Amino acid sequence: MNTPNITVNPELSPEALKKIDREVAKYPADQKQSAVMAALVIAQDEKGWLSKETIAVVANYLGMAPMAAYEVASFYNMYDLHPVGKYKLTVCTNLPCALSGGVHAADYVKGKLGIDFNETTPDGKFTLKEGECMGACGDAPVMLVNNKRMCSFMLPEQIDKLLAECK
Amino acid sequence: MALIDTINPLLTTGWSKGDDGWSLKDYEARGGYKQLRRVLESKMTQDDLIAEVKKSVLRGRGGAGFPTGLKWSFMPKAAPEKYVVCNTDEGEPGTFKDRDLLRFDPHSTIEGMIIAGYAVGAKLGYNYIHGEIFEIYQRFEAALDQARAAGYLGNNILGSDFSFDLFAHHGWGAYICGEETGLLESIEGKKGQPRYKPPFPANFGLYGKPTTINNTETFAAIPFILGMGGEAYLNLGKPNNGGTKLFSISGHVNRPGNYEVPMGTPFAKLLEMAGGMRGGRKLKAVIPGGSSAPVLPADVIMDCTMDYDSIAKAGSMLGSGAVIVMDETVCMVKALERLAYFYFEESCGQCTPCREGSGWLYRVVHRIEHGEGRPEDLDLLNRVTDNMMGKTICALADAAAFPVRSFIKHFQSEFEYHINNKKCLVDPDVQRAGSGFFKAGAA
Ligand SMILES: Cc1cc2nc3c(=O)[nH]c(=O)nc-3n(C[C@H](O)[C@H](O)[C@H](O)COP(=O)(O)O)c2cc1C
Ligand code: SF4
Ligand code: FES
Q1: Distance from CA of B310 to the nearest CA of A (A)
Q2: CA quadruple B147, B153, B154, B158: dihedral, nearest 10
Q3: In a mutational test of the pocket of ligand 3, which residue from A137, A151, A154 has the highest number of ligand atoms less than 8 Å from its CB?
């Protein structure tokens, strides 16, 4: 999916700002920048992805240079700097998972959705990503839904159920 | 829920009720926060506390196995501002113990961190939690709220003059933040690029202040050590390898999961606890300490006991205690290709030998796996690793090199077969069937 040229309002809602305030409060008063990782996640959750403009809004709110916030957003894998489908599915294919069906699970999802890794279904519903170890290898195959929800033991039947749930 | 089996359970005592046993009430019912109370009420000195931890010979559970008591003793006494940081960035492929620790028993880590704060004179702590386990991060925050409401965190804990607070910080998908100084940079709101050492975190840590950083399992062990005494804890294991350890067993066993056993337990026993080999197939190789540890062939690992010294003597590392079991259906070239890709992908790029070297390793193993290997490739791989090891800011470059060297060393003929015949020694259909969908628990 290409970056659409419609402009998204980069401003954050009062609820999002309140959540960011809660993160800022965890750190010493002169270390607001420590909250940038959490703040970018809050912004991503609200907007679906992080545009340069949204990143700048977060940076300004925390009193840091937009470039510094952008560096963070581009360093960590789970920030989406481009629009993704409504459901981003990340399948772990690292070796421990691959020994217990991780690659099979990825292939199964690819087949069901008709897309490869780093692609989005034409209806904009699903984006598929290949993941690295999620620290849950005993539950292989494992998948993340929209970064935050982990699904364990994803055999074909469970994958079918998950995809059906994603409305 | 993770499958659990233990010999001498300590860390896993609270796991039996699964997701229903994590709350403060449950933790207190099994003796939780008693040790913190005892430390504060008896006004135990910092030196006595650190001496007790030293006696236990608890060694860091994050990978390097550094003695915890000794690490704590490096903290400068006089500094006004100090920090305690917990490393739950668990991203080392094969490792999934810290996730279950925080999921089933978050308060043991919290109690361990508060006691550590008391021992080193810190007033503030952070637990850095792997971004991929956001639900666990939320549970940890809920546990922190419980602890704060009960007076275990905050000002004048349990009416003493000791104050300490603790917060959770989550990652967002970068393996390198497991490296302790990369992690500190990340808490500071920057890219997680490791720092040159020295200075070590004990002198220059979070926000430039003295900082003690330990793995989750290390902190979680502290209340148990104080409960039974350092010496009794040591004696659970074997000399120089104190206590019990969680092993995360993945791969071709019948019951993947976490198993807590005393240090020094034979590998064969651990394999048996994990239900033995899947489908009764033959063991080929084991990576005993997370993907960064050198692989060991079946006959070598079957003679090992699971402790730092035995695994080191066999030529590998106990690392994080992640045991990756591979049977005869595995193509070693393909297995190595996946690991090499991981290190290439996760190198933070600061050091040329690591950035370039990890790319070379991946590309050369990839071409061997895909039937385009050249006779000189094995020498090339070894030369590239020579130029990486010990030549970089952090140990990720070494971690990328160890698998390559050890896979080639122990399975050279399989690599040669691949280069000469342009295909796998193990039939691809056999490989696929051997690593297919698998329902845990079914023998
Ligand atoms: C590339 C790399 C990744 C690491 N990942 C982790 C990790 O996920 N968890 C961890 O506790 N230690 C990890 N470590 C080790 C830490 O740097 C550090 O030694 C450890 O957290 C210290 O705690 P301990 O003494 O209790 O083991 C990693 C080290 C390197 C070089
Ligand atoms: S060794 Fe690799 S991961 Fe570590 S600091 Fe250097 S480039 Fe980064
Ligand atoms: S390898 Fe997939 S979660 Fe660890």
Answers
A1: 23
A2: 100
A3: A137
Structure tokens at B144: 């922190």
ipTM field: 0.96
Judged by CB atoms closer than 8 Å, whether chains meet at A144 and B132 is answered as yes
Q: Is the pTM of this model over 0.95?
A: yes
* Residues linked to residue A119 through DSSP beta bridges, in sequence order: A128
Q: Chain A contact for B248, CB < 8 A?
A: yes
Cα B24 off chain centre by: 25
Percent of chain B with pLDDT over 70: 98
At what angle are helices B106-120 and B134-149 packed, to 10 degrees? 60
Q: Across the interface, do B256 and A79 touch by the CB < 8 Å criterion?
A: no
Report how far Cα B231 is from the mean position of its chain's Cα atoms.
24
| The two structure tokens encoding residue B330 | 């595995």
**B window 373-412, beta carbon within 8 A of A:** none
Cβ neighbours for B434, distance < 8 A, ≥ 6 positions apart: B252, B281, B327, B328, B329, B330
Q: Give the total residue count for chain B.
A: 443
How far is residue B441 from each of residues A49, A138, B9, B203, B276, measured CA to CA in Å?
Answer: 39, 11, 21, 47, 11
Per DSSP, B318 falls in state: -
Which of B89, B92, B175, B176 to probe ligand 2 with, by most ligand atoms within 8 A of CB? B176
Calculate mean pLDDT across residues B17-43: 96
Q: How far apart are CA B407 and CA A120, in angstroms?
A: 37
Q: Got the DSSP string for chain A?
A: -PPPSSPPP-PPPHHHHHHHHHHHTTS-TT-GGGGHHHHHHHHHHHHSS--HHHHHHHHHHHTS-HHHHHHHHHHSTT--SS---SEEEEEE-SHHHHTTTHHHHHHHHHHHHT--TTEE-TTS-EEEEEE---S-GGG-S-EEETTTEEE-S--HHHHHHHHHH--
Minimal-distance CA residue of chain A relative to B174: A76
Task: Name the band, by pLDDT with cuts 50, 70 and 90, for residue B258.
Answer: very high
A residues 148-167 closer than 8 Å to B (CB): 148-150, 153, 155-156
φ, ψ dihedrals at A12, nearest 5°:
-100, 150
Nearest to B434 by CA among B282, B287, B260: B282
